[in-house]
Design a protein that fits this description.
Blueprint: E1 4-8, H1 12-24, E2 28-32, H2 35-44, E3 49-53, H3 61-70, E4 79-84, H4 88-97, E5 101-105, H5 109-128, E6 134-136, E7 139-142, E8 147-150, E9 153-154, H6 159-170, E10 175-177, H7 178-186, H8 195-207, E11 215-218, E12 222-225
Parallel strand pairs: 1-2, 1-3, 3-4, 4-5
Antiparallel strand pairs: 6-7, 7-8, 8-9, 10-12, 11-12
Helix pairs in contact: 1-5, 2-3, 3-4, 6-7, 6-8
Length: 232
């Protein structure tokens, strides 16, 4: 089945450019021009990835992202935001809402395609990895079903949060620099700075309180996931 991407962009010239490059890369592309149309399109058919502009009519891109992440059916759809170069605060809010990546305008269409491919490749690798679910005390991560649960209760994570959690569990006890996390989890030479790592770590701590103390910040370097206490 071909990979389907939903492009949400109200500027017709930019939207046409994105669609042309994605279709050239052999993706199937649906295109809408408003936040409301984006939510309606997702409700009709789930895309494999969404390219989402922030400045949209009817419903803003940040609100679209928030609604997607609040629903279990859509919470794990990968989202790449398109932002104006000066919208740093919006980019940070978008990452905190669960967007997986962002590309600042003006951007290279080739770079956008590369980021789409890298994100999909990481997710596909995790979904296709067979084996026993990763465990951390009462926490279980099942890559086959892309499922995270604590004592049997499912926890909704975004695609990037899932990848980051899996990586931390696989490298438990090791000090991991932000640069290493960007390279190995984000899957390419990320140019957005290490702030995105901190944002995603904070969201994991919020969604998974048992990691609040166990996921240790190593000052001026990165993070380390320590072993759970024996009673966990």
């Amino acid at each position: 089945m071909p990979t389907r991407i939903l492009v949400v962009e109200d500027d017709p010239d930019i939207a046409e450019l994105i669609v042309r490059y994605l279709e050239k890369a052999e993706f199937v592309v649906d295109r809408v021009a408003s936040g409301r149309a984006a939510l309606e399109a997702v409700a009709t058919r789930l895309p494999d990835l969404i390219v989402l502009d922030l400045m949209l009519p009817q419903i803003a891109g940040l609100e679209v992202c928030r609604r997607l992440r609040s629903e279990p059916r859509t919470s794990s759809i990968p989202v790449i935001m398109l932002t104006a170069r000066g919208e740093e605060s919006d980019r940070i809010v978008g990452l905190e809402l669960g967007a997986d990546d962002y590309v600042a305008k003006p951007f290279s269409p080739g770079e956008l395609v590369a980021r789409v491919r890298a994100l999909l490749r990481r997710i596909h690798r995790e979904k296709s990895t067979a084996g026993t679910p990763l465990r951390y005390g009462p926490l279980a991560v099942d890559a086959d079903r892309h499922l995270v649960a604590i004592a049997g209760r499912e926890i909704a994570l975004t695609a990037k949060e899932f990848l980051l959690l899996s990586y931390l569990l696989e490298h438990r006890g090791r000090v991991l620099s932000r640069d290493v996390l960007l390279a190995d989890v984000w899957g390419y030479r990320y140019t957005g700075g290490t702030r995105t790592v901190d944002v995603h770590v904070r969201r994991l701590r919020e969604k998974l309180p048992l990691l609040s103390d166990a996921l240790v910040t190593v000052k001026q370097f990165g993070y380390k996931l320590v072993d759970p206490p024996p009673s966990a």
